[in-house]
Amino acid sequence: TSNQQNLMDNTANNFFLTGVQLEVGSSASDFEHEEYGETLEKCKRYTQVWVESGHELMPWTGAQVSTTRSLVSMFFEREMRAAPSITKTDDEWQIWVRGTTGCDISSMNFDHVCEVSARLDCTHGSGGGAGEAIIFAHDGSGGTGRLTLSAEI
Questions:
Q1: Residues 145 and 89: beta-carbon distance below 8 Å
Q2: How far is CA 101 from the centre of its chain?
Q3: How many angstroms separate the CA atoms of 103 and 54, rounded?
Q4: How would you write the pLDDT of the chain (153 residues) with one tens digit per residue?
Q5: Distance between CA 81 and CA 9 in Å, rounded?
Q6: First-to-last CA distance in the chain?
Q7: Which residues pair with 64 in a beta bridge?
């Protein structure tokens, strides 16, 4: 009628709806209120993202196989729905040997990926030797690094 708002008269019109729960059948159940943290934990079964900038250390360690190759163990924040695909945004990752020497990674392959962990096989600049402990890090010289785990349906 002429005294009501026409929400279809312009494509810039927005209609916002919240606090609604759709039900199947003729009887309604109690409205479900879920905490943000609970929803976030459910989402981590499908996607997890690590963002690093500067010379920040990732929560993963490993060992050198040789002076130019290391294996890094990654443990996920939460068990994922399935073995995820793993992508990275840039090539500014490093292996730190003895906590002070940053060796630029030239290639990084993800292998042995499952729902709870993965292993990185990294080729990098020379530093340290076989059997030495290493830490995985982002060098931060070109901005922010991102590793994304995705187990979407």
A1: yes
A2: 26
A3: 15
A4: 678 878 778 888 888 888 888 888 988 888 888 899 999 999 999 999 888 766 566 778 899 999 899 999 989 999 999 999 888 877 678 888 875 668 888 888 888 889 999 998 999 888 888 888 888 887 766 667 788 899 987
A5: 44
A6: 45
A7: 70
